[in-house]
Predict the 3D structure of the following.
Amino acid sequence: MKNIKKLVKKESFIYLVLFILLFYNFNYNLFGIVNESNFMHWDQQSESIVRNTVLIARKNGIFCNYGLMTGYLSQIGLQSILFRIIDKLTFNNNKIFSLLHAITTILFCINIFYILNWIKNEFSKFTAVIVYFTIFLSNWLIMASRNLYWVIFTFLLPFVIMLYFLSMEDKGKKIKNSQLLLGVFITIFIKCACGFEAISSVLITMMLPFIYYGYKNSWNLSFWIKRTLIIGLCGFFTTLFTLVIQIVQLSLFFSSYDKAKNYLNFTFLKRIGESYSEKIFLLDNNLYLESLESDLLTVVNMYVFQAKYYVGIFFEKITIFNILFLFLIFVIVYFIIYEKIEKNNSRKLISLLLIVLICFFAPISWFIIGKGHSYIHGMILYILWYLPFTILIFTFIGYFIYNTVLINKINLYLKFEKIKYKKYIVSTLLMIVMFIVYANYSYSNKQIKKIVNIGTKLYDGKGNDIYYFQNKLYYILNRKNVPEYRMFLHVYVEGANGFKNLDFDFYKYIVKSSLYNRNKMAVINLGDLRNIKKIDTGEYNPFDIIRNIWEASIDIKNIRPMKIVFANLFDKNIGGGILRKDHSIVVIENPIYNIEYLNNKKLKTYDGQELNIRKIEKQGNYYYLYLDNDINVSNCFPTQIEVIE
């Protein structure tokens, strides 16, 4: 008995330590897993709505604006109402937001720990440890867990409550349908009242415990269907009930039911990405217009093939597709060795496999239904993969390893201990991996150096530099981390009204460089743009609508090329852009500057030889630069030559 008590105390102490570590990791980024700038600024634009509402409520009262958030009317704003009450109870303390962050993070950690406890009881401690570390190292969860707008614990709450009820039922406790319905109503109302974002995902994940226990315990089919249908309908009607409350709020706010209805209709259509007559109001926001015109395949591709699965500082190039592929490998191996797994455990694995497959459609459902919303919030809604899809994937993988290798000890036919010269094999494999990594990053660094050498420098921002080469812009930024805010790029062309908007997210176009190289380069294709007269570009500041983080206005007419890049042409008359007969130069037409500007200018080779340009002729897309002397080819750069004013 004493031994059992000691064991319980020891386990409780370990759980407490793990909980505290998770809390400090999520709330303070204590271990530096996430870049500090990303951690501090992750979707601060949305959180600032909640912050401003709390501060304004100090003067105007907790329920000012009928409880709606200041400047944002697309949800009831339950989280901001609760935060206003906490602020009032703490006497408007200046450190209120630190307290609110801590409360939000603790609530999320409680949800996570309940899921981990369920995994421990259902699938072993080993599996729970595997899952704990994948959660602990997850960049996206660390960045999102404390955000006061998203309050992401509300995304998991319906799933956790249903998991609690059905796990209790599995242990023999009688659970009434009324308890289940009340749990659904409360948790779905809380989620919707804090925002309707990703509600389809939440409703699907809420049903996963019914799928798992239904198959595991061989529920009667009619009972299974009836129960899931009742729960699903309850969740759906709770969502509608929340909408009714919001219509009442908006009607009071606008003093008009019609205005409230039109506003909700406008918000709904904007989120699903449908074109509609009111889109004229969004003409000043190109990102919204892009979202309305985006196709479904583009959005799904963005979230499946481009969404990065970050695990701390590791695996930065892994996408969700790679995680799916890894999961598929384990599933295939599982079916190969199916007969060697104990029957009870096998049924558990199939039940788990079922909910993983169904959970895949939880985030996908919102990417499809909320197409417009998903297109705009790419750097935010990646978190849907973690709530709880990837958690369940690693539960399957962990339990599969535990159940096959650690318990059944299946003979894998290849015991490493019996392999001769294993030290040499390990060393060779390690060297191969290191070479691949070095080759990858070395190539990227050479790309940056190449552009610096042969590109036309359009802007010298002392660390925010822009080069042009062959219809592409190269942003080379000297900083430790990738810019987290959107870059603006407005191109003005002769004879055209307004500008062509090429705004972009830096991380989507980045060329990876080595860990020791601070330079980060993004490549933007300008397309076939001739007669460019001006480029306005820089990095938006979401916290200051007047001043951007940095900006540059580049007058193309004043660009003076410092180097000329030879055309990559080879035939019997031309060798690498240099005419074999008289060593004149062939260069490609450059839309950034007028090459005819070079007429009567001097060129200088690497060894100091100076050459005068006596004539320039255009032939198709190429310019022929005729010189007054022959070029000593061996003394030139391989593909370029310097321009002298």
Q: What stands out?
A: The chain has 21 helices and 17 strands. The first helix runs from residue 2 to 28. Confidence is low (pLDDT under 50) at residues 275-287, 410-420, 634-638.
